[in-house]
Every structure is written in C-alpha cells, then in structure tokens.
Specification:
two-stranded antiparallel sheet; two-stranded antiparallel ribbon; flat; 1 helix
C-alpha cells in the first residue's frame, strides 16, 4: 500500500488482522509501526522477524 505524507509517497505493508476474538466480541489489537534502518534494502529482509509480531500487534 502507498500513502502520501507531507508530499512524500511511502510504501507500507499490513501484516495480520487488526482484531482478535475475545469470547463473543472482537477486540482491537495495538498497532506496531516498524521502520527499517535505511536505503538499499526493503522490508522483506525483516519479514521473518516481524511477521510473528502480528499475533499480538
């Protein structure tokens, strides 16, 4: 997905669901924003470590 922030186009990836079942209701999970270290690489290098976090965030 892309977003425009202050005139700069950025790419972001959404991993997992924003809600988890809690009995008969769905409860919203907290949001985690992870920013990788800089140019020359993309977020795919970090997927093995970040994907498991989608269980809680």
């Amino acid at each position: 997905m892309f977003a425009s922030i202050n005139g700069t186009k950025i790419y972001f990836d959404v991993e997992g669901s924003g809600y988890i079942p809690a009995g008969p209701k769905m409860v919203k999970k907290p949001v985690l924003v992870a920013v990788h270290g800089g140019p020359g690489s993309d977020h795919s290098d970090f997927k093995p470590w970040l994907t498991p976090l989608a269980e809680d965030y």
